[in-house]
Amino acid sequence: MKHTPLSPAVEDFLEAILTLAPNGHAVRSVDVATQLGISRAAVSKVLANLVLAGLIEHTPYGSIQLTVSGLARARLITQSHQMLKRFLIEILKIDENTAEQDACRLEHVISDETRQKWLHYIARTLPG
To answer: What CA–CA distance (Å, rounded) separates 48 from 119?
Structure first.
């Protein structure tokens, strides 16, 4: 499935919102700022773009909630991150800190085709 390209920073926002509310509930902008280690003003700028893209619902000074498409996109980004990190640790024997940093970078550039084939490979190769 082809997606509208998002910047790595915007994808990180979606991933942070999902981390804070894996069940799809609303979160506060201050919590997103804390999760990402950035200012609340920086969060506000990105939130406006995510609303325009139809990925979140947000009112000024209100809560943030992923839309159905935002939740799907956030889950895809998170799945890629987890897959890459697991591969780096379990197959390549990269230490966990390095694997975390590299997975965070790689998740933003991997194509849907490569991600799908990689997931299939991991499912066949790694237990659990």
So the answer is: 33
